[in-house]
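Researcher: Excuse me, tokens okay?
***
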Amino acid sequence: MSSRSIRSSFQKKLLARFLVAGFVPLLVCIVLVTILFRVTLNSSTENRAERQLADMSERLHTLVLGCDDVLEQLQESELVLAALTGEREATEVYSFLYDATGQMSRQATFSLYDGEGQLLYTTGTAAPGERLPLNWGLLYAAREGAGLICRRASEYDKVRHGSMQLARAVWGEDEIPAGYVTAELSDDCFRHLFEGTYDSGNDILVLDRFWGTVYASPTLHDETLAPRLRAQLLEGESLSIAGSNCTYYVQEEPASGFALVMQQPKPVADWIMQLLLWVTVAALLLSLLLGSQFSMAFSREIFEPIRELNTAMARIEEGDLAVRLEVRGTDEISQLLERFNLMAGRLKENLDNSIRQQQELGDAQIRMMQAQLNPHFLYNTLDTLKWLGKINRIPEVSTISANLADILRSSISADDFVRLGDELALLERYVEIQNIRFPDKFVYQTDIEDETREMLIPKLTLQPLVENAIIHGFEDGSHGVITVSAAQRGDELTVTVQDDGCGMSPDSRARFLAKSGAASGHLGLYNVDAILRLHYGEKCGLKFLSPRDGRGTCIRMTLPVRTRTDKEDATL
């Protein structure tokens, strides 16, 4: 791979990581903050508007119910019925009218109309004699309906002193209306009623059941607002106006059925949101530009030492171990260059040592080949000794020669593992030799479970343990017993060699546990322990146990259960 392709790949990866690390978190943060700000602000504004609208609806509801109570009282009064037929004096009627209306007369104008729609009495400023139509409008609705009638004042009425009208019919004989009692609410009444209940900058509309304007706050100068909102509703769309920076909230007053609409400017105008969007885009682009420039400069700063390192490694691949790099600083890259120089020096040193060792190994092989004896010569010599012993009737020589030949044959065999039964047979030959050397010095016995004889163990691992027991266990001249036992415990094979001799001294055991075989004088034990650990791991080394009678030495090795079939399967 060329240095140019390495630089291109490295710079692209570094650039991508810088952009992801700098751009994505910034983008996510800005989006989340913007959304959270807008949602929180809209929620707070909406909650406040709904509370204010509920307060205004409650005030209007209380006023409508108060007016209805007065109208119902007038409707049921005998004096009013008599006044409508002209049977009462005007002063008496006015006195009763003002008494019945009480404090409500300050908020609404109450009037009495006769059956022909002519105004007879009023708490307002209208002149008696004015008429309202009977075949349409307020009086028609009162005659045809039942209970309280609420309407907005029609611009076609000649008598129009308010914005909202309430009426009840006063029934005479033969179910013919003797007259009508009405109440009118003016714009001033609505203005005082809603004063202080909503924020400045908001506007209020009171609409009738057909969304005709009953009252509009003084600051609302858009006379087409109510028709446009009504058109939105008729088309099944949400209560909003395209291009408007206002939000609309609606609540119905239950007694009259009129709707209160609050027009509230959006907490954040559209142009502010657009400006915020442009600022966000500009910040992201600036972040992208700065991240790109910074990552490119940083990658170039890192790449130059890496390029030099790549070139030097290519020279080492070609066999030039004398190459070295110039270290210019103390940062991590400089430390990497220092380690490269150290690695190159050690590599050259190791190569020189390897060449020297190869030369020494060649010389050793030549010397070994020169001194090598043919194993058949040893076997033939031992066989000759065996027959000489038999011919001269010296059975010990014959036995030692035959057993030693078997031991030699096993020690130079290619197999690393043997059956426990074969190892025990070889051990018996070794013990037979030692019995000839040391007659009546020890008794050898075994306690072997039959199923363990087919299990595999490393070859020549029992002989050093028994040899240690013979040489060191009875070095004080005592007579004893050496016991070799084997048993299977689950998936483990335990082999124990125990003697009842003088035992291993604490110092020797400490040196052995410290893995100092030569210093401990027990090189055979050390070799067996090393073989077990190499084959099975650290936990399978030799273990010293407490002897049953408190005398002698007890050594155990614990191996995984393996048979010849398992070994062959593992090899396959």
In short: Residues 1-7, 366-374 have pLDDT under 50 and may be disordered. The radius of gyration is 58 Å. DSSP finds 16 helices and 16 strands in the chain. The CA atoms of residues 203 and 263 lie 5 Å apart.
